[in-house]
Queue: 2 jobs
Job 1
Amino acid sequence: MRDTDHMNTPDAGRQTHVLALLGPSAQAVQSAMESQNRFSLKFHDAKDCSRLPWQAEHQPDLVLLEPPTGDQDRLIAWLRELGTLAPHTPVLVIGELLSVGAVQALLALQATNVVPLPFATDAFLAQINAVMHRDDDTTNNAQVWSFMSAVGGAGATTLAIETAFQLQSGLSSHGRVALIDLNFVDGACAAYLDTPANLRLGDVAADPERIDDALIEAFASKHDGGFDVLAAGRDPFGYQPINAQTVGRLLDVCCDIYDHVVIDISRWMQDWTMDVVCGSDALVIVSELTVPALHAARDLAQNIEANAPQSGDHLHLILNRMAKRVFGHSISIADAQKALGRKTSGAISSDWDGAAQAVNYGLPIGMASTKSKIPKDIQSLVEILNAPAVCPDVANRIRLAS
Ligand SMILES: Nc1ncnc2c1ncn2[C@@H]1O[C@H](COP(=O)(O)OP(=O)(O)O)[C@@H](O)[C@H]1O
Ligand SMILES: [Mg+2]
């Protein structure tokens, strides 16, 4: 994700490897971590560990320590070992009554915190988040691609869904993909994919800091295609409670959890729309091949560039429902580029049957119809969007006269 004023994002999240030496809270900790599918836990009974069971070849991302009741000396020994072996690895100590020696050993480490008892799952997960992201800088590896239709029905939702699916099926098993529907009035991602619409962003709009990994897990619906869907239920007044801080925080946290974030966003500008556009690594404007749609796409692109000149190098125009040219009245890519006044980044084949079959089964097209050309075209689009950005000078040079 690109940095914007509102959206400073941490590194992309993957499976978190946790080394846990636990005493009385072992069961509570294990079930809290199992409730999330992002942890891989290596658990040891604290009673059996006078020393850290450290394996240099399996360095954990996080260490959890809880000594057997009252055994502060054992805790101090573990912390001192960590000070030598891995002073930068985040450490959470469970239990608050620490001896002076334990506090001193804890302070020698770089990222630490204490989880108070009685054990509370939500507070514990929030502590993990905080201790792991203490050193965050403002860069971020998650790729954010936003899809916006130039006119209603041009196909942004269809293409965003298919892109999320193709990204997921092409990634290594550790890669995570989120599809986020930012149309809070009548977004269609959840309906097209037959998933629950659990994104209740309005509930936390007054306190966006409440959005953390645990809340995103609650908002997200898992699709059989392997990616998560974050979409709100239909609501004619759905935009009213949403503010820029909440959308910014949602995307910040999602960029921390996922490797790819695909956004379906409306062309009807909200006061946070340009933040999302500027924070995206790619903005895909989807047009169909009619003169009014192409003119709408041209105007939309110009409007966005006028408001955010830096967006020019990551703005892509895609022609959807490209049909084989049979009759003289259909529009070629060359005609379309002329009407748009600029080069297009690609075209997606028309396949009404494949697209209809997919939504009727609640699936991406790549899962519903093996014969469709659309998934292959989306794979090409993914390659284009993954390619390094063209610098603005070059983009201007390849722009055609209108
Ligand atoms: N490449 C395509 N070929 C055939 N039909 C398509 C294609 N892309 C989208 N559609 C269909 O067009 C309609 C509108 O698509 P949708 O993605 O909902 O548009 P938007 O999100 O821009 O309003 C849907 O019925 C969808 O199945
Ligand atoms: Mg749509």
Note: The longest helix spans residues 291-307.
Job 2
Amino acid sequence: MVMDFKEGDIKIKRIQSASSINTFKQCPRKYFYSYVLELPTSDNIYQVRGNIAHSALEHFFSINTNHIDEHNYEKHLKVAMQELLVFHWRAEKERLDKLKLPEDKIQHYFEDTLHMLIAWVDLFCRKIRSAKKSFKEAFAYLTPIAEQHFISRKFGVQGFIDAIEIQDGKTRVMDYKTSSSSELTDEYLLQLSIYTLLYHEKYGKFPDEVGLYLLRHGEKTIKADEKLLKLAEKECLEIHRRTLSDDIEDYPLNPGPLCKWSTGQCDFYNICFKNKKINEF
Ligand code: SF4
């Protein structure tokens, strides 16, 4: 989204996101190709299965709980999640086929994704048990507000928040992650700080916590406070200041392990290192 307006003291060229800011921090040249030139990027299995897992989780809360047995809900919820995964996996068949991965690799990623989602259902069932309500009441109580788009025109940043949970008078802003990381990395911290800013600007108050469902490892949350808000403000000001230019020379290459790895390479590797022309892209 490219625009050219001034808001307060910030000159905003385009609306940013946690992803665009993290891309710039990783490699300014990659940011230039992705967000200034808007060159197309290719899918990879991690993106596709991440999208599929998000769809399954989002639709999980729309399942009909009327026919689910109060004493056997755990098994029903796991079957429902498996069915949702199969449905959304099939819906993305075209994208999966384009990856041209061997059948056994695709099967491996399907099973790996199922394993993560079932681990999340286990966590959810523990919450149902501790809610001390009937199954149906607990399910409704634990259902979050899903997939909300937030935008701050003041700081020129936006985000799609996966889940806003309001329980026991507390509000948590949560995101689902399928990556293997078990820690709140700097990239995740930046994302959570931006969600804090977006929520704070929209509602005029902090959520109690922001956090992640690291689907392989459980959940991690941190307090949403002034410090997190200031981090987001600082990063937003910095990215706008450093991305006003359309000159490639203002976006240096940052060669490193994310240029090329054992199973793939950056979308722009051939431009950076193999003399491929941008207009051939
Ligand atoms: S190949 Fe490396 S240097 Fe080039 S854009 Fe990608 S990450 Fe940056």
Note: Residues 45-142 form one domain.
